Amino acid sequence: MAAASATLVKWMSVLDANNAGRIHGGTVMKLCDEAAGLAAIRHARRPAVTAAVDRLTFLHPVFIGEVLTLRASVNAAWETSMEVGVRVESENPLTGEVRHTSSAYLTMVAVDEHGNPATVPPLVAEGEEEAQRERAAQERRERRLAERARERSREDQSAERRQHTQPT
Fold first, then answer.
1. 66 in a structural domain
2. Could you tell me if residue 111 is inside a domain?
3. What's the rounded Cα separation, in Å, for the pair 55 and 70?
């Protein structure tokens, strides 16, 4: 599955940090998006855009001078979308200490030259670990779709109530 993965490495500087010397969460989010995008593009062999961030968990802070390594891999692929998991680790280059600092799941959609959703190839899991990641991604997708359906239903009911209470 090497074509469906990406690794980004970035040394964190003062420009990435707040006044307490900690790296902005938004900086980590942007790097997660970039790593996920590259993995998705490599899998689809076409441009891909971010449709959703399912979860982004910050486990430990990242500090100025640390090196971030972001490993992204496509966990599952559907008709036009893919779930990409990103694992973020920070390394203190002076001590060699490495910490798992963040994890994220992003939904990426492949697009054609006009920006319309485009078909992606199926993902072929190699080994039990990849098959397990694909099953877990499918479960997360089913939960996302069910939540989206509940939200649409609530919106439709709210619109219907507003329509019935409008003065005529």
1. yes
2. yes
3. 15
DSSP three-state, residue 32: helix
Query: In whole angstroms, what is the distance from residue 51 CA to residue 41 CA?
Result: 14
Buried b (16+ CB within 10 A) or exposed e, 148-164: eeeeeeeeeeeeeeeee
Residue 136 within any structural domain of the chain:
no
The type of residue at 154 is R
Q: What is the largest CA-CA distance in the chain?
A: 73
pLDDT digits 0-9 by tens, 48-66:
999 999 889 999 999 999 9
Return d(Cα 96, Cα 118) in angstroms, integer: 43
Two structure tokens written together for 155: 């919106």
Q: How many domains does the chain have?
A: 1
Distances (CA, A) of 73 to 6, 38, 64, 105, 159: 6, 9, 26, 10, 40
Parent domain of 85: 2-123
CATH classification of the domain holding 79: 3.10.129.10
Do the Cβ atoms of 42 and 34 come closer than 8 Å?
no
Q: What is the pLDDT of residues 80-119, one digit of tens each?
A: 999 999 999 999 999 999 999 999 999 999 999 999 999 9
